[in-house]
Structure formats: C-alpha cells, structure tokens
Amino acid sequence: MLNLLLSKWIMHDQLVNTIKKYIALSDDDVDVIHELFSERILNKGEHFLSAGELCQHVGFICSGIVYYGVNTDGNETIHNFACENSFVSNYDSLINKTISIKDIVALEETTMLVISAQNLEQLYSRLSEGQRFGRLLMEEVYTSAIKQILSFYNNDPETRYMEFLRQHPDLVQRIPQYYIAAYVGIKPQSLSRIRKRMTTM
Amino acid sequence: MLNLLLSKWIMHDQLVNTIKKYIALSDDDVDVIHELFSERILNKGEHFLSAGELCQHVGFICSGIVYYGVNTDGNETIHNFACENSFVSNYDSLINKTISIKDIVALEETTMLVISAQNLEQLYSRLSEGQRFGRLLMEEVYTSAIKQILSFYNNDPETRYMEFLRQHPDLVQRIPQYYIAAYVGIKPQSLSRIRKRMTTM
Question: What's the whole-model pTM score?
Fold first, then answer.
C-alpha cells in the first residue's frame, strides 16, 4: 500500500515537473493536476488508442514506451515512438472529433497518467496559466508533427535511422529491431545492413 | 483621408470579428488588437515571407490571396493558398526561430493587418482570453497543416483538385490555372484534361 502511494506520488511529481517546463504552477494548480489525471497501466502490446476509435484522452508516460502505428492492408508502418515524460495522443482525432487512423500501442509495460478530453479543457481553464500551457503544448505538437511527417516522406531509410539515433539515443537498446525497421521504412535485414555499414565507417 | 480611415476601420473590424469566432473580446481587448496590428499592402507578386528568411510576423488577410510555395532546383511547388479572413505565417519558422524554406507570395494586391512575433506574445498575454486564442489558433493550424501535408503526399492530382474545389470554391476563378496546377502537382495541360473530364462526367 505504501509502495503504491509512493509510486503514485512519484508519477504525479514527474508530471508536475514536466508541466513546470512550460508554465509556473502554484500549490492550487498542483492540486488541480492531481484531481484531473488518473493512473493507468498498459501491458506490453496493449492499445492506448486503436484505429477506428475516437481519441478521447491524452496520456503522460511515467515509465515505458509506446509507438504510433498505421496499419494499411495488413502492413504496419510505425510513425513515431514516445517514452518517459512525453505526452501522447492523437491530437487531430481529439481536437476535431474524427476517427483515429492510428494505433498507439505499448511496446513494454507502460505506466501513465491519463486525462480525458473533458478534463483537459478543465485543466486549461483552471490552472492559472492553463491556456498558455495548452498553447505552448500545441506549438510543440505542431512543429514535431510537421518534422515527423516530412521526414517520413522525404528522407531515405539511412537518414531516418540516423535521425532516430540522434533523437532517441536511449531507445535504440529498448526497442526491438523489428519496430525500428518499420519506423525507418525497411525490412529488418536491411536495417542490419545499415547498422553494419555504420559500424565499419 | 476619410476613405483611408474608413478602410482601416473596416480592416480592423474584419480582424476583430474573426478573433471573436475563437474568444470573447471586451472593448479593452479591441483596443489592444488595434494597437498591436498594423496595415500592410502587398503588391501582386510581392513576398510576405521569402525562403531563407526567419519568419517574424503573422498576417491577417483583409483582401487578396497569397500562396505558400517551395522552390526546389527552380521547380516551384505550391503547398497552399490563403485568402480573406485567414491568418498566414510560417509558424514552424516563427515558433522555433528556424529559417523558412517556404515563400509566402501575394497572387493579387493583398491588404493585411500584420503583427510581429513580439507583439503576438503581447496579444496572447494582454487579451483577457489571449492564451486561449493562441491555443485554439494553434490547434487549427496543427490540424490543417497535417491534412495539407498528408494530401500533398497521399492524394493523386485529381483528388487534390477535387479537394481544392471543395475547400475553395470561390478561389478557382481568382487563381491563375498555372498556380492551381502547381498546387495539384501537375502541368497546366494535364489540369485542363482533368477539368474537361470533370465537365463531361
């Protein structure tokens, strides 16, 4: 029980520290955050969001990794990964209330603090600088989405792999090769060749 | 002189009415908007932003049309158009202070109200619901950018043309064929063929 409380406290502390990178938080603000987010654990392979559903939550990852994938005619392409201290959501589906074409899936056991779309509106209006937090978060979501999509279409596999290593040096050991290859847009064997070439360079 | 004042008044009124679609505005808020935006007229062909520059402004179009273009090795591709009552900017360059790869160019004489990046921050903090306006604007910018990029890469020319007609039924008469073809991603002759096919359907 004490362990559970301790781990809840650590999770909320992680979230509060992350939000503090955007805005200042008063003690009352911290209470609002505690009230509006709730804990969720995803098992390995469990979906945070499934294609065909309406996205109704934003999650904050306390530990673990998720991937964003799109399944086209049985072929799964991975668009992105997210790990500790990141917010995850399909914001397009969340904002415009459109059906998600993306899956968001846990790659390992993932502990999260989750907020519903309705509570997110409350967060924005009840935190002293809540709307500013929303604006800064959306600016970040916007610019990283643009980068990610352009890289998906414009970069060759080797460049995408180099970019992945640069952005997530810590994740390369934690994500199975199969998923990294699906992100880079090639078969696992071709990724091995790229890695071999890079080590002999 | 009276005409000039009248036209300034109409322009600001247009802007205020557009911002009111996002948030409520008090009389004080309206004064802040008047203070922070200034008039600018672009001649046909004049650049609001040139590739290679840092984007330091957001414009609000009162009359006229601009296009967003990217010039690669002398080949110009058109990514988007914007007309009356729209905000225009390269938000990625504006937010992250990175060099723009896009041009934003007037397709006809275009009157605008323009705000600098610095004044935009003031607008967000001084309007009673300024941060909320920023958040809602960024949500819109985000979702429309995603749609636009995905359409650019995933849709064939005919679908892109149909989508253009659906989104901008009023612009098809105002934009020269050459630019519509560059937006759709084909030669003007191929666009003529698509149009002919559509009229005989």
Answer: 0.89
Cα separation, A11 vs A112, whole angstroms: 8
Identity of the residue numbered A106: A
Show pLDDT as tens, one digit a residue, over chain B (201 residues).
667 666 888 999 999 999 999 999 999 999 999 999 999 999 999 999 999 999 999 999 999 999 999 888 888 889 889 999 999 999 999 999 999 999 999 999 999 999 999 999 999 999 999 999 999 999 999 998 888 877 777 788 888 899 889 988 889 889 999 999 999 888 889 888 888 888 776
User: Which ranges of A155-184 does DSSP label H, i.e. alpha helix?
Assistant: 157-167, 177-184
| Domain locations in chain A as residue ranges | 2-154
Q: In chain A, which residues touch B (CB < 8 A)? A: 91-92, 95-96, 124, 129, 131-132, 134-135, 138-139, 141-143, 145-146, 149-150, 153
Which of B87, B90, B102, B131 to mutate: most A Cβ within 10 Å? B131
Q: Are B161 and B192 in contact (CB under 8 A)?
A: no
Kind of pairing between the strands at B103-106 and A110-116: unpaired
B89 by Cβ neighbours in 10 Å (0-12 / 13-18 / 19+) ranks as buried
Q: Which residues of B43-62 are buried (b: 16+ CB within 10 A; e: fewer)?
A: eeeeebbebeeebbbbbbbb
Superfamily name and number for A2-154: Jelly Rolls (2.60.120.10)
For residue A143, the chain B residues in CB contact (below 8 A) are: 91-92, 95-96
Two structure tokens written together for B149: 């990029």
Residue in B with minimal Cα distance to A142 = B142
